[in-house]
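Ticket 4471: requesting a sanity check on a complex prediction with dioxothiomolybdenum(VI) ion. Repro inputs:
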Amino acid sequence: MNRSLRTHEVGVDHERVDGWAKVTGTGPYAYEQPVSQPSYLHPVQSTVARGRVTEVDARAATALSGVLTVLTPFNAPRLQHGHDAELEVLQSDEVWFRGQIVAAVVAETPEVARQAADLVRVQYRTSPHDVILSVDRDDLYKPESVNPNHPTDSLAGDPDAAFDDAARAVEATYTTAMTHNNPLEPHTTVAVWHGDDATATLTVYDSTQGVHTIGEAIATMFGLTPDRVRVVAPYVGGGFGSKGRPHPHEILTVLAAQRLKGRPVKFAVTRQQMFSFVGYRTPTIQRMRLAADVDGRLTGISNDIVELTARYKEFAEQTGIPTRTMYAATNRRTTHRLAALDVPVPSWMRAPGECPGMFAPEVAMDELAEACGVDPIELRIRNEPETDPDTGKPYSSRNFVACLREGARRFGWADRPPLARSRRDGDWWVGTGVAGSTYPVLRRPGTSAASVRYDGDGRYVVSIGAADLGTGAWTALTQIAADALTVPFSDIDMRIGDTGLPPATVAGGSSGTTNWGSAIVAAARRFREKYGDDPDAGDEYTAAATDDGHTERFAMHAYGAQFAEVLVNVDTGEIRVPRLLGVFAIGRVINPRTARSQLVGGMTMGLSMALHEKSVLDERFGFVVNHDLAEYHIPTCADVPSVEAHWITEHDPYVNPMGSKGIGEIGIVGTAAAIANAVHHATGVRVREVPITNDAVLLTSHQ
Ligand code: MOS
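Returned structure tokens:
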């Protein structure tokens, strides 16, 4: 059963319910949570990329006034082994990457902790390290699956034969850079143990995208039952996936608090430390082939991908996924191969898979359009599939073409000169480009639950252990709860961000609203069935959404079309993006204000990927040298003059009772390709690498 929600509050442009708390500074982020007598942790990070710690000399650190303890691989309390190598912090002398935590100081003040950490002397037995990603390596391997559990490779028909027989073809290698998640709020964990015996319990204030996810990881690593671990995260300043799964800093903070027997420990990860142990996006090398007839109808499509993982733990980015599903073609192949290197383990960064995985195909489609003499929008329309090419399932709704057409109208695409390098305005080449966006609707029915309680005086408390990492979830869920209970928005007291509330999935994969909203609707309906429209104070019902089977029957995706205008300086190659415009098909929009913010934010981050972001790995020492916001570039307001996000009206009765599709990630998908295509249109130079730098344009354009 999947009755649609009747909407009164859903779709309304409500202010954020947490807005006032945030702008007045009264909403506590993890670091600001009041605890009595806090102590402060500062880690010591390895200065070698591979080897073993042979000795930790903490005498000078310990002698410093205010130092409470120094944890080392040789004295740290033992954790459960064999669950997650990334989380086994200070459990062995082995060094897997430069920047790994090899010791930690806890002190009375953050300043003393940092000073003492500097005084800790670590000796290593160093081994040669290897951090070079290349398609020529002879040790590339095929992982068992790619994130989260997709088949590693896909094959239908014979794409190589289709390529050999093609009237028109594109074959090229496209690369995307290593990039690091840089949310505004760095990661912070505060750990408080209560009691110090076999019944001790733990409270953790954490900056996280999922309190239950973190709570379960901590319970597992410390051998506790989950009910003894409480994780609290009402306010989070962004994450982009880096707070979606546990990392060593959370475990280390709990470990330190355990050692101090009752003294709370705070660990505020610094911006520089974030480049070492909270995840990042792998660089990708994508060998892409398109085969088509003279009119640009695809007969074959393949993407063979090489990317990296860490030697101590595998993460396989699902970069080939969009190639599997985006366009029709009888013959198709995707492969993923990994190099296991002496680097930190890569992880989720906004639209893992789809984001890098739409760069190659969407630039290749632009190249095919040029080869066929077909407009790039028309080319995409000609390759629109009837059913999902990957699974054969019908789409629950697919409105990619409507996005292309509406975007073309709003952007003024009809006036575009068909030939590259045909518009110049003073010292600037002018060009425009288009690319497609897609992101799946991920659903995990039954894994989130919500409770509804009537408190009397017309007030309903709706509780779920969801996270609002700045996305607007708090507000959107309040709107959904109001409609599910058929009461006004202002009658709902929403409670989120605490493992004391019913279990909720992680705020990841753009799936929060789907999973949590479905649970809230289910709980509200059961509440009304049981208690009617006139409940007594204290009446309460907790429920999870049941599986409607739609995931088995339909392919479910959001779509978008992104348009970019670029200026490229004739003399310097400087690239500016005066205008980005996206039109999205994202189901029903719960809150236009927060939705627009998500889409504009995603597109801005896509511009950042196109022109700015690159983690520079120094091969000699094996670490990212530009590990701060002075040298790791993200766009400022001046870099992003105009970003417009629009959406079409889309009704999808299958995705969830709200009819909504995820919006947190689709905005970043395709943006970089649209900008690369616009750079080509401006200059005639085809850049197949992001970030696109001045020299890439300049060196070729003056030949
Ligand atoms: Mo998102 S990278 O799935 O948190």
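Notes from triage: Residues 512-531 form the longest helix (20 residues). Leaving this open until the requester confirms.
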